[in-house]
């Protein structure tokens, strides 16, 4: 079996939904349907996690080989207004740990965005950090994991923040479009 680790926060964990409706489970099903039965998707999502938490938490996932690593952290950093530089350094530390242990792993970075209504330069800096990190590390990149989902009441739970089952399908589609290039 080849392992695909999707490491993220509540978006990955499928907050408020049965595990089978979270996008990592949908990716697993897509792999099965497409004939990639030798891939196992590991859901490394933890609700509320920040990139700082992820730096410490990633160690627990490195006990088995990772063939494809999908890094989907950062949304909570943005919501909390954590400095873009700190978020970038934490994401880099996670990438370094994974690639040190799994040097042949293929990597996808799932980008996050803060709405432009946030005052000041923070939204632009936050958006830019993901693009710069992907370029610096020469890794595959999903510009905005929540594209088409963020702000759409029909695709989110009543809290307006977490994708519902239909929204999770779009997260899976965005991820699959990049993942299929690596299989």
From TrEMBL:
<dbReference type="InterPro" id="IPR051532">
    <property type="entry name" value="Ester_Hydrolysis_Enzymes"/>
</dbReference>
<dbReference type="InterPro" id="IPR013830">
    <property type="entry name" value="SGNH_hydro"/>
</dbReference>
<dbReference type="InterPro" id="IPR008265">
    <property type="entry name" value="Lipase_GDSL_AS"/>
</dbReference>
<feature type="domain" description="SGNH hydrolase-type esterase">
    <location>
        <begin position="6"/>
        <end position="170"/>
    </location>
</feature>
<dbReference type="GO" id="GO:0006629">
    <property type="term" value="P:lipid metabolic process"/>
</dbReference>
<dbReference type="InterPro" id="IPR036514">
    <property type="entry name" value="SGNH_hydro_sf"/>
</dbReference>
<protein>
    <submittedName>
        <fullName>Acyl-CoA thioesterase-1</fullName>
    </submittedName>
</protein>
<dbReference type="Pfam" id="PF13472">
    <property type="entry name" value="Lipase_GDSL_2"/>
</dbReference>
<dbReference type="GO" id="GO:0004622">
    <property type="term" value="F:phosphatidylcholine lysophospholipase activity"/>
</dbReference>
